[in-house]
């Protein structure tokens, strides 16, 4: 019921050229911030991979970097 009312509210706003609610732009801003944080974390892991010798330690850092990449893709 609430979802239906929200859809109607958005449709009415679009009909009267009120634009989309501010929540959508806020959501986009939070997603952009999250992506920036994940990019910084990936850069840090990239440096760690360069500095570590091949072996279990480097594989662990690669695994962490892959998890961050998967989060970033979502």
Cα-atom radius of gyration = 20 Å
Query: How much beta, percentage-wise?
Result: under 5%
Low-confidence stretches: none
Span between N and C termini?
A: 28 Å
Helix/strand order, N-terminal first: HHH
Indicate the percent of residues in helices. over 70%
Per the principal axes of the C-alpha atoms, what is the gross shape? elongated
User: What is the mean predicted local confidence, pLDDT?
Assistant: 81
> DSSP helix count?
3
> How many β strands by DSSP?
0
Can you summarize the main beta sheet?
Answer: none
Structural class: mainly alpha
Describe this structure in words.
The protein is built from 3 helices and no strands. The protein has 74 residues and is mainly alpha-helical. The protein has a domain at 24-74. Helix 2 runs antiparallel to helix 3 (56-73). The longest helix is centred in the middle third of the chain and has 30 residues, at 22-51. It is elongated and about 60 Å long.
Q: Any key phrases for this structure?
A:
74 residues, mainly alpha, elongated
